[in-house]
């Protein structure tokens, strides 16, 4: 067998293979014998039909099977001899094939990139010396109080932190706002709309102009909408709102006592407070660990440069585009806007895909060097956790994974996490004061 290799691109090769005529004829003979054994032809006992009749009857089938067998075996042998780490399936082009002549074919293959691993142990990372403070706990307790807020109508002027219930109409240049922005119906008119003074949850500057207002009072609120206003047609415009105050409401939060704690299933307020602190500490640990792991991956990416397989990048780009489009759709972004931004989305996706593919090759190579394995038990545990998260029966979740070849993705997830565990274990951690610039977790 003769093999020649031509480099088409850094990770793409053209492998030309020639198999001698003798081997071709031998394969034709062996395949013919197999057909002879299985042939069931009229007038002959099974397996006893004459060779020439079997060849005449199954000529095309024998030829196809001989070709498949020869190309499959020759391709595998060529790849093994050349020590190629092939990705995906080859593109096979038949050049010459037939009895009594050499088989010639060409296989276009993509291969894993070749590179030297950078030093991946003792990578320097930064960790903020943050702790959970009493102030953090109190803020969290205030968040827990919010769902139990009581709103009591009061007969007095509205002050900071109070709710003003209003009816309003909005205009720009004397015309309803929807004349400029048809989708902005909520800015054009609202009934019984709640505005909290000081919360800055509505248009900036709106609530502040209602300080001192009382029920049944009318006010004119004027606002210069900011240049980066979410509705582009209204950005920088001068808006006028005619406001009628319906009522003023006082916010009353529940007392931080044992009764409040029991509403959250705690024995006492002190027990609730302890639980909140533990949760905040776990959250802080998670964020710090994620930041460190993100720094480790970013450092690896910056330490080595190598070419990437085009097909792998293209496939990952499609995956990233899909994720971006789905995320925008969930946020309510219309198809028209997504279509208008498709070039920007693709550019961002392409860059993100290249990094993800590069990280995958780096982590895979570290796994090989460190002899890191993933067991069936670890895969089963991850599947069980994901099924519970998505509230899907485990058996159905597995079937869905199998349909889209998702088990490989699960394997890669677990493997990558184990590799990053090793990197984190050996990382050179520098503790820095709070507020020091540290890469955000991605």
Describe the structure.
The chain has 13 helices and 12 strands. It is α+β, with helices and mostly antiparallel strands and 442 residues long. The protein folds into 3 domains: 2-111, Trigger factor ribosome-binding domain (Alpha-Beta Plaits); 150-252, Roll (Chitinase A, domain 3); 265-305 and 351-432, no CATH class. The strands form 3 sheets. Strands 6, 7, 8, 9, 10 and 11 form a 6-stranded antiparallel sheet that branches. Strands 1-2-4-3 form a 4-stranded antiparallel sheet. Helix 4 (134-145) packs across helix 7 and helix 8 (310-330) crosses helix 10. The chain starts with a strand and ends in a 10-residue tail after the last strand. The model has no long low-confidence stretch (mean pLDDT 93).
Please tag this protein with its features.
442 residues, Chitinase A, domain 3, six-stranded antiparallel sheet, four-stranded antiparallel sheet, 13 helices, 12 strands, elongated
